[in-house]
Design goal:
Layout (H helix, E strand, L loop, with lengths): L2 E4 L4 H12 L5 E4 L10 H6 L7 E4 L2 E4 L1 H11 L10 H17 L6 H11 L3 H25 L14 H15 L8 H11 L2 H6 L9
Parallel strand pairs: 1-2
Antiparallel strand pairs: 1-3, 3-4
Helix pairs in contact: 1-3, 1-7, 4-6, 4-7, 7-8
Length: 213
């Protein structure tokens, strides 16, 4: 049985939940409360030296870092695939993934925001401005990529959700949470709406987790 240590509102955790759901792989949900600091405990750091969520346990192994976990899931259960078969198309999807996973999310996660508050005296307005800047900058580039792909289909690439949606949908949730103006991104909004109708994304949504508050 797979044990997924995660937090309901963690975007990286939601990525993994979506991927497992798209693959129809059952897992045991183990909550780790980031706001209470459970990820910094000795017990959890013995599992994940970084003290970050998520962590995935299976067959005596512990996997950390959502990009590595998602690639492992794709290789372990290749059907249905989260990536196109063509190498250039795979690189295209991975570029969208990296845009979100490397250039938007890391500068907006909880430990960065806490550092801005504690070390640079950033108030809530400054925090929201910081988040909005990086999401807007990244989404502007992604929206351009999506708009330029005439044969895109209903999702980021093609007519089925895949790896790109695993990253995008949690980031859209975060954007709405921090009141980022999404009206500038019609393609992204359309993809989010398409995913919202699918059970894999509904089951992974932060509002539907055991530790949701």
């Amino acid at each position: 049985m797979i044990r997924l240590y995660n937090y309901y509102r963690s975007g990286t955790s939601q990525r993994v939940r979506i991927a497992l759901n798209l693959k129809n792989v059952p897992y045991d949900y183990v909550p780790v409360n980031l706001l209470k600091g459970e990820h910094r405990s000795k017990i959890y750091r013995a599992l994940n030296p970084q003290g970050l969520a998520p962590s995935l346990q299976i067959d005596g192994h512990t996997l950390i870092q959502s990009p590595a976990i998602l690639e492992w899931i794709e290789e372990k259960w290749p059907d249905p695939s989260l990536l196109p078969s063509d190498l250039f198309e795979r690189a295209h999807v991975r570029a969208m993934v990296a845009l979100i996973g490397c250039d938007i999310h890391p500068v907006n996660n909880l430990r960065i925001l806490n550092r801005l508050k504690s070390e640079f005296s950033a108030d809530q307005q400054a925090i929201h401005s910081w988040i909005s800047h990086w999401i807007t900058e990244g989404f502007t580039a992604l929206e351009t990529m999506l708009q330029q792909d005439i044969g895109r289909g209903d999702f980021c690439f093609g007519n089925l959700p895949g790896m790109a949606e695993c990253y995008l949908i949690p980031q859209v949730y975060a954007a709405r949470r921090f009141e980022v103006d999404l009206t500038l991104f019609p393609a992204i909004i359309a993809i989010d709406e398409a995913c919202a109708n699918l059970s894999a994304f509904q089951a992974a949504h932060p509002d539907n987790q055991p530790d949701t508050v």
